[in-house]
Amino acid sequence: MKSVWIIDDDRSIRWVLEKALARENIEFKSFATADEALFALDGSLPQVVVSDIRMPGSSGLDFLQALHQRHPLIPAIIMTAYSDLESAVSAFQGGAFEYLPKPFDINHAVDLIRRALEQSQRKAGGVQEAEVTAGILGQAHAMQEVFRAIGKLAQSQATVLINGESGTGKELVARALHRHSPRASKPFIAINTAAIPKDLLESELFGHERGAFTGAAATRHGRFEQAEGGTLFLDEIGDMPADLQTRLLRVLSDGNFYRVGGHQPIKANVRIITATHQNLYERVKQGLFREDLFHRLNVIRLHLPPLRERREDIPLLAKYFLQKNARELGVEQKQLSDEALRFLAAQDFPGNVRQLENLCHWLTVMTPSRMVEIADLPPEWRNEAGMDAAVISGDWSAILAQQVGLALQRGEERIMDTFTAQFERTMILQALQHTGGRRIEASTLLGIGRNTLTRKIQELGIDGQES
To answer: Of 133, 336, 376, 462, which is the most exposed, with the fewest CB atoms less than 10 Å away?
Structure first.
């Protein structure tokens, strides 16, 4: 069985990737040098390669060049440090599937590897796409409208523009549109146009001929060719550079394109689905987006609501993500208490469904008990987002519960004395402020004797602050 090859002279990097792939039941082989991997190519082939750039002996780019000369369909992910941007550019121009900046998030790395495996299987005539419909959940009216639209578009070849904030699930909707279309048996290729440097994006989309520029050692098929007969999903289309907007318009107009450095037109049989979190109409008015391209893309528009506009879906989504993470990690499924669910439903979730998914993953890994309470949420949720929501809703007891939970986690002692003193101090100060410092009136409003009020003012050190 073909496997993922890990090539890196850093033993710790190899170890982290090995553990992550083993947890995902993905076969792998590890090599400390590119030379070892080059030697192994004579006897076996990988399905995907994950390689560092700079190593003793042959570099990762040397290996990439040799791999693509012999086996151009094997995807390679090149790892690089942030400071090594020139090498990263060379990696893309040399035909890398993707590059992974160091230090990297291991979940992001595994996601890239899975995408590369899917592409490898498609090119080898492998299995169909995995089902992802379960990731698009929603009982809210706005989501039901999205589901209906997907159903109506099932047999359509129309260009679709998906609008929604980051994290709302635009790619999931694009995949669903593809899977339920006549093109379902053909590739679905996704590309984030904002994530790729401008000088690489043209080659990424349209491919390049050998010798088209320095480092172009072999002809490379771009995303349009990879998606032949299927669907090309262009995410964050609003950030596409002006010159590439012109090239994309030309493809949509006459159905042909040229590779970088090429002179032969190539016919594009691809359905285009685009997405953006921006208001394209406003960008057109600002001169940042071509009006004619906007009208070409805006044939059918789908709007994905942010999570704060579909709060009733939060319990459903949270349950799904907790189930999914428990199954993938092989651990007991966590369950949110009613109080925790109400708390989460009050949050704005600026990162939308993706932020909720990440939170559920954190809870699955980090919380010790099966039942998740508010105090089990990450500190930034209890302290910041939770505080804001509690203040807005007027639920001071929720704020108190959060603060007590934090103090308990810090191992503080005599918590009752500390919080009782803070509570009394706040009550007295507010009452004195309300009465203009008149103690008799303040004591009456608080329901305590004047002598008691005077004693507490002294004990709490409020003297001089009540005027």
So the answer is: 133
How far apart CA 200 and CA 184 sit, in angstroms, is 29
Q: Tell me, what CATH number does 454's domain have? A: 1.10.10
Q: For residue 221, tell me if it sits in a domain.
A: yes
Residue 103: asked if its preceding bond is cis (omega within 30°), the reply is yes
H-helix or E-strand spanning residue 234: strand 231-235
What are the Cα distances from residue 223, in Å, to 171, 231, 323, 418? 16, 10, 34, 62
Helices (H), strands (E): how many in the chain? Answer: 21, 14
Q: For 304-319, write each residue's pLDDT tens digit.
A: 999 988 888 898 899 9
User: Taking CA 193 as the corner, what is the angle to CA 191 and CA 194, rounded to the nearest 5 degrees?
Assistant: 130
For residues 255 and 220, membership in a common domain is answered with: yes
Runs of H (alpha helix) within 255-313: 280-285, 291-297
Reported pTM: 0.54
Can you tell me the distance from the alpha carbon of 36 to that of 159, in angstroms, rounded to the nearest whole number? Answer: 47
CA atoms in the 13 A half-sphere facing the CB of 209: 12
95-128 residue pLDDT tens? 667 767 777 889 888 988 988 888 777 655 433 3
87 and 16 within one domain:
yes
Q: Which is nearest to 424 in space by CA: 465, 464, 457?
A: 457
Token pair in block for residue 410: 């810090």
CATH code at 313? 1.10.8.60
